[in-house]
Amino acid sequence: YLSGNDECGELNQSGRSDVNILIVVNPKTKQILLINTPRDYYVNVNSLKSGIGKDKLTHAGTYGIDVSMETLGALYETDINYYVRLNFSSLIEIVDILGGVDVYSEYAFTTGWESGYEMEVQQGINHFDGKQALAFSRERHALEGGDNQRGKNQQAVITAMLKKVLSPTMLLKANSIINQVSQDVETNISQGQLNSLVKSQLKSGAKWTIQSVAASGTDGEDYCYSVPDMPLYVLYPDEEVVNSIVELANIVEEGGSLESGEALN
Q1: SS3 sequence of 160-222
Q2: What does the pLDDT average to over 169-189?
Q3: CA angle, 42 then 43 then 46, to 5°
Q4: What is each CA distance from 1 to 5, 69, 83, 102, 171, in whole angstroms?
Q5: pTM for the complete prediction?
Q6: 208-232: pLDDT as tens digits
Q7: What is the DSSP letter of 127?
Q8: Would strands 84-86 and 2-4 be described as parallel, antiparallel, or unpaired?
């Protein structure tokens, strides 16, 4: 679970999660599925602290990252084992340490001052430094698809970062990179697990298939567990889309191929 909040400075254990991306990984078949879930998704928030109540996904983070993981795990019918938590400062620092990233944009647009950095984005591949990658990830007012397209853009940045990290040049510098970003990332993935993944990739040199999908829904207003006194804007989940995402996640977990949509023998 990749969780991102709209803060700078030190990471907090709890707080609204404005970026919610599940990364389903099968290290044997080299398949990665990125699942973006809108922050306003109206879901059951599962928590020992709060019981079960309908709320925006972003509010689940206020009860702790474990609650966000439980909530998304229930939505997509899967167990989420690990998490990575970032904020604005984290993303800028990591992208700069990687030497920038090459990000594919579906559309040409201009980011506004609200994104933190004004720039022209071209359709196709753009090379971004940390501030530019963050602005691309934050912008929504200039996008016809609004928050939905912003979610896709965030996935594009994550995809670019994964591709950069998986390159032989970066893998050889892995220990140094991990040490540099350790202060900017909160995670329950151990150093030993990271080292094992790096060694495995260096040995195999395998190519990975990365696919992105996004949950969608219908705009509305409803009462939320954490703010019970007045209706708030929410996004009601499209159950058919959620079910199709569950099927894709199962293909990856069961050793199938994202490219063919079929299980591998």
Answers
A1: HHHHHHCCHHHHHCHHHHHHHHCCCCEECCCHHHHHHHHHHHHHHCCCCEEEEEECCEEEEEE
A2: 86
A3: 145
A4: 13, 7, 4, 23, 22
A5: 0.89
A6: 999 999 999 999 999 999 899 999 9
A7: E
A8: parallel
Which letter, b or e, does each residue of 156-166 get, where b requires 16 or more Cβ atoms within 10 Å of its Cβ?
bbbbbbbebbb
Q: How far is residue 22's CA from residue 72's CA, in Å, rounded to a whole number?
A: 8
In angstroms, the CA 47 to CA 259 distance is 36
Based on the number of CB atoms within 10 Å of its own CB, is 73 exposed (0-12), middle (13-18) or buried (19 or more)? middle
The length of the chain is 265
Cα dihedral 109→115→116→120 (10° resolution): 0
Looking at the DSSP assignment, which residues form a beta bridge with residue 51? 47
173 vs 171: CA distance, rounded Å: 5
How confident is the model over 102-138, as pLDDT tens digits?
999 999 999 999 999 999 999 999 999 999 999 999 9
The tokens for 112 are 């506004």
CA distance readout (Å), 12 to 4, 86, 87: 11, 10, 9
Tally of CB atoms within 10 A around 122? 10
Q: Where does residue 229 fall: left (phi above 0), alpha (psi -120 to 50 degrees), or beta otherwise?
A: alpha
